[in-house]
Amino acid sequence: MASGATRYRLSCSLPGHELDVRGLVCCLYPPGAFVSVSRDRTTRLWAPDSPNRGFTEMHCMSGHSNFVSCVCIIPSSDMYPHGLIATGGNDHNICIFSLDSPVPLYILKGHKNTVCSLSSGKFGTLLSGSWDTTAKVWLNDKCMMTLQGHTAAVWAVKILPEQGLMLTGSADRTIKLWKAGRCERTFSGHEDCVRGLAILSETEFLSCANDASIRRWQITGECLEVYYGHTNYIYSISVFPNCKDFVTTAEDRSLRIWKHGECAQTIRLPAQSIWCCCVLDNGDIVVGASDGIIRVFTESEDRTASAEEIKAFEKELSQATIDSKTGDLGDINAEQLPGREHLNEPGKYFSVSSSKNATIFCSCSTKTPYTPPFSDPYVDLFCFVCTGGGRYVPSSSVSSNTLPTADPFTGAGRYVPGSSSLGTTVAGVDPFTGNSAYRSAASKTVNIYFPKKEAVTFDQANPTQILGKLKELNGTAPEEKKLTEDDLILLEKILSLICNSSSEKPTAQQLQILWKAINWPEDIVFPALDILRLSIKHPSVNENFCNEKEGAQLSSHLINLLNPKGKPANQLLALRTFCNCFVGQAGQKLMMSQRESLMSHAIELKSGSNKNIHIALATLTLNYSVCFHKDHNIEGKAQCLSVISTILEVVQDLEATFRLLVALGTLISDDSNAVQLAKSLGVDAQIKKYASVSEPAKVSECCRLILNLL
Q1: N or C terminus: which one in the chain shows less Cβ crowding within 10 Å?
Q2: Which parts are the WD repeats (predicted)?
Q3: Rounded distance, CA 480 to CA 470, Å?
Q4: 346 in Cβ contact with 365 (< 8 Å)
Q5: Which of 295-304, 320-329, 414-423 has the lowest mean pLDDT?
Q6: Domain 463-707: top CATH class
Q7: Under a CB-based contact definition with an 8 Å cutoff, are residues 699 and 661 in contact?
Q8: SS3 of residue 161 by DSSP
Q9: Closest Cα to residue 87, out of 74, 100, 101?
Q10: How far apart are CA 247 and CA 227, in angstroms?
Q11: How would residue 53 be classed by pLDDT, with cut points 50, 70 and 90?
């Protein structure tokens, strides 16, 4: 403990809630106010009585059908200059309140279990964490995206100052960093549930956990420091304004104040679970606990409670001393528990009295969870629990199938919820980038780039070379896969009528042979895929291959070819085929139904160096953007924005960049929600560098038009 430092003392105690106070957050208005939420299902706004001391309950809000577990403030906007209050509850819902109504403005539904953590960002975005193992990103009343990757409850969430970066902490003992909806990094180190997160700067953050430790991390993945002091689960952590000092609350009945990396002060409270805390702008600390009382602590002499109030608090604290017989075991009588002789028996409860005020208890799965250094299991257990100067030490290395210990919040087991070397020549120019492309000599005030209204396709080909390669590789095909001379003639006819824009329809026999060819082994299938890529634009082929009966089989086959370990030629042609599917109604419907699976597989190809694959990937994203612009599908737009942001980080080719910019412009055109979402993901910061590209001019011109919208 730091010596000579100013000490925090009680400022005031605020009764009002009838059950546990589960969440606290500083409020934008009125100045110096804060909001609390409770298991009594209410949300309360507390305003300062005067500049010196005391708070008054200004507003009580209700909207949840079960206990409320978390709260955050959504920043002010033109419509709501005082901001909004967001609360999450055990009813799986998020309620959004204004400061002038006791009922919610609206309710966000989507989580499948308790919403236990909330964090707000710029431009109205909201991040929620739930026992359903997911986090969700919301914009106004819409769910923009779901962050999936944790294997247990998401207890903590935070949006980092740098736009687009988000953190989630979970009962699976990990923390994940998300960029534009994708997991960029997983932080491992905690030995039990991660319960709280706090932001120190754009590059550093803190975490606290059920392992009784606090960790300071860099977003690059390095754990810079581990702090110990608490002796039980740490539930919340909050940072002082404009510095890196912080406060924590825990199941050990204490609030701890950390300065310069050391525990400078420990304040005991007369309640078992100290669930939450927040630090006000004046440096005062607000604490919520399981006794339903909110307490405020201050360094200021002017705001310190009267001598009578402090005496009453100390008396209450002395009366809350842990009983030596029952400790914190509720109705369990320690005297009736088995004695030392049972320590050698697996699966039994045992107790060790270490002092008059504490009872240490544990349940063994075999005997003792370590290799005993002593012969007496009583001494072994005592030393094991007290390792580390008396701080809580989790029960050895917990394996993934170890039953979690009891969570005092639920009263039972802690919730763990459940290029292209194709052999073919692509001749001519791409109509999207060729002679008809925009030239800098044209008027720069006219936006000819977006919103794009029609799908972009890959049309150019050399039929002679495609057929030549097909015949060559047919000789190496397995006997059961080989095409006969008649089969090859049929494929030649289908390719001819497609390339010559004939009004003739391919026959069922021709399509059957084409399907047989695209199922060749992966090392020889690419010329057949090239024929499919061209053919799928034909209305009858599009309908035949993409209809409800056959479409799932086609998409599954092509998605398998997107395997990052597969052949680049197949990856490229599969992507181009998907792009060309969009020209037909059946193909477009198929692409929309397969969107999540297709995009999640396709984006895995971003890390390669093949520029043609990057162009095809950008074109696929653009074609989805065209569809979402037409039907105003905000969730689809959110996925596309995430994909665009992710690909822009790695792509080098300017043609691929241009198509991504057109996709971005198409998504945000005439849609203020999409504009807000793009800004919250930090896309504007990503694309600024393209505004100075000189050649091709279309890149910088398109970029500047988008920046004007953002």
Answers
A1: N
A2: 108-138, 147-179, 227-259
A3: 16
A4: yes
A5: 414-423
A6: mainly alpha
A7: yes
A8: coil
A9: 74
A10: 12
A11: confident
Q: How far apart are CA 468 and CA 463, in angstroms?
A: 8
The arithmetic mean of pLDDT across residues 36-60, rounded, is 91
Contact 665, 706 (CB under 8 A): yes
The answer to whether 129 and 135 are in contact (CB under 8 A) is yes
What is the β-pairing status of strands 182-188 and 194-199? Answer: unpaired
Are 330 and 47 in contact, with CB atoms under 8 Å apart? no
Q: Is the dihedral of CA 631, 632, 634, 639 positive or negative?
A: positive
The pLDDT assigned to 341 comes to 61
Q: Which two tokens stand for residue 62?
A: 């209700």
| pLDDT tens column, 103-137 | 999 999 999 999 999 999 888 899 999 999 999 99
The amino acid sitting at 358 is A
Q: Identify the DSSP state of 456.
A: -
How far is residue 340 CA from its own chain's centroid? 47
pLDDT of the residue at 123: 82
Strands of 165-170's sheet in order across: 154-159, 165-170, 174-179, 182-188
Tokens 């696929």 correspond to 620
Q: Is the alpha carbon torsion for 205, 256, 412, 370 positive or negative? A: positive
- Using a 10 angstrom Cβ sphere, with 0-12 exposed, 13-18 middle and 19 or more buried, the burial of residue 614 is buried
| Alpha carbon distance 289, 15 (integer Å) | 11
CA 313/CA 296 separation, integer angstroms? 12
The span from the CA of 76 to the CA of 82, in Å, is 5
CA distance 667 to 700: 18
- Cα–chain center distance at 235: 20
Helices 654-668 and 634-648: crossing angle in degrees, nearest 10, is 160
| Domain 9-313 and domain 463-707 have a common topology | no
| pTM of the full structure | 0.69
Task: Give me the residue label for tokens 């309620």.
Answer: 95
| Whole-number average pLDDT of the chain | 84
**Pairwise CA distance, residues 527 & 475, whole Å:** 13
Q: How far is CA 162 from the centre of its chain?
A: 15
Provide the 3-class DSSP secondary structure of residue 18.
Answer: coil
Give the whole-angstrom CA distance, residue 606 versus residue 427.
25
Q: pLDDT (tens digit, 9 = 90+) per residue, 469-526?
A: 999 999 999 999 999 999 999 999 999 999 888 888 999 999 999 999 999 999 999 9
Identify the sign of the CA torsion 226, 227, 231, 232: negative
In this structure, what token pair is assigned to residue 270? 């007369």
Question: Taking the domains of the chain in order of start, what are their residue ranges?
Answer: 9-313, 463-707
Residue with token string 């440096």: 283
How many angstroms separate the CA atoms of 655 and 120, rounded? 36
Q: Are 642 and 180 in contact (CB under 8 A)?
A: yes
Over residues 607-625, the mean pLDDT reads 95
Q: Which two tokens stand for residue 197?
A: 């997160």
207/237 Cα distance (integer angstroms): 8
Using alpha carbons only, give the angle 65, 69, 70 rounded to the nearest 5 degrees: 120
Residue that is written with structure tokens 């039990």 in the block: 192
Beta carbons within 8 Å of 105's beta carbon, 6+ residues apart: 84, 96, 97, 98
pLDDT score of 634: 82
The Cα–Cα gap between 68 and 25 comes to 13
Position 503 scores a pLDDT of: 81
CATH 2.130.10.10, applies to 9-313: yes
